[in-house]
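Friendly challenge for the regulars: who can give me the structure tokens for this chain first? No prize, just bragging rights.
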Amino acid sequence: MELNKVEVPVMADMFAKGIHPEYLFWVGCAGAFDDQYQKVTRAFAKILTFLKVNYAVLGKEESCTGDPARRAGNEMLYQMQALQNIEIFKKYGIRKVITICPHCYNIFKNEYPDLGADFEVINYLQFIDQCILSGKLNLEPGVLTDVCITYHDPCYLGRANDIYIEPRSILKKITSNLVEMERNKSFAMCCGGGGAQMFKEAEKGDKEVYIERTEEALRTDAKVIATACPFCMTMITDGIKSKNRENDVRNFDIAELIVQSLNI
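First reply, four minutes later:
Bragging rights claimed.
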């Protein structure tokens, strides 16, 4: 598999050669099929290649984690998908999984163990932050150092898994101008797409949740709204467009900002 001149190793091919990668990069449904989030997949693959990480993806063997099914109330479908994934992990002896989607991260870490899963789950921001702390990755000075950036906390990273420090630590290496929204960290507002809300019609109300959250972001006067979740990216991008601000305010995932900063 090749992503923008970055050769991405596939687990089955590696095992056929007798190679056992240290990490499985779990791409996720959005990372595989959504045009916008495919850019995040490419960005993180570039980072892994830049760091010379021993990893692989499942490719065609990767399926959905079952998170949307469970959130929508289809427990049987969730368990079918989860057990199938667990068996594939066992087949390849996978012990460490890196995710770029908080929903995948959360269900792997907190719900799969109930079905017998036994592997370490690492969010990509945790992985990148550790690489920075260990000296393997140097982000300063970068081309984005003067760009005003604000960060939207994904629910499944923040409130669900207490990952607040790592994204901010990374962004402070990228820019000297990181600003917070009125509601942030444990008080941050949802983008409006979680809990399977992404796949249903909006309920009655005066304003869409994603519009409210985008307005908060715009009030910071940031030129970049950084996200770390495919649901958040979709909702915030739609919010920017609804406000006709796409010409002066951009939404990027943190992995994309790292690639821009490193110019790789």
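The two ends are 19 Å apart (CA to CA). The chain has two domains: 2-129, 136-262. Your move, everyone else.
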